[in-house]
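quick one before i forget lol
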Amino acid sequence: MRKKLDRKFYNRPTLLVAKELLGKYLVVQKDGCFLSGKIVETEAYIGFKDPASHAYRRMTPRNKVMFGEPGYAYVYITYGMHHCLNLVTEKKGYPAAILIRALEPADGIEWMKKRRGHQRLEELTSGPAKLCQALNIDRKLNGADLCSDVIYVEDQGEKVERIASSSRIGIKDGRGKKWRFFVEDNKFVSR
């Protein structure tokens, strides 16, 4: 059973969505390739009071998508060269999004290996920049509708038994929030 997630799925509390994304499949159909991976790690960024969020202070041209309708892709560049994918959640005007941190590769693995220049399966998509490179996710997908046929998340009926949480990774402020969620003991989770 494959079912594309609809906008209602994203229009809910971000922490709930971040956990429920685990075990779902991120799909990208672009440039003649069908690529997918099971989501095994997420991180939540919520509202104006989260000092780690790009929307912490105000809306800017960079973070404008976070303030829009739920169910859209927010893709940004970090360190001047790496893309990161976030899925916008909650109501329009309230900036909240979920960073997709790691995937377990499923479809298009050989193509992912070519894009990444790696042969070890465990290293293809075990980090936010790695998975964007492997799945050809770039700024052209910023603002893309997650209910389209280009980039979307689908439920294939898999259940995740054990979800763990921890502090978010790679941030200075807001580390006390345990808003990183991952499939416990999954070898594709970022290190």
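fyi DSSP finds four helices and nine strands in the chain.
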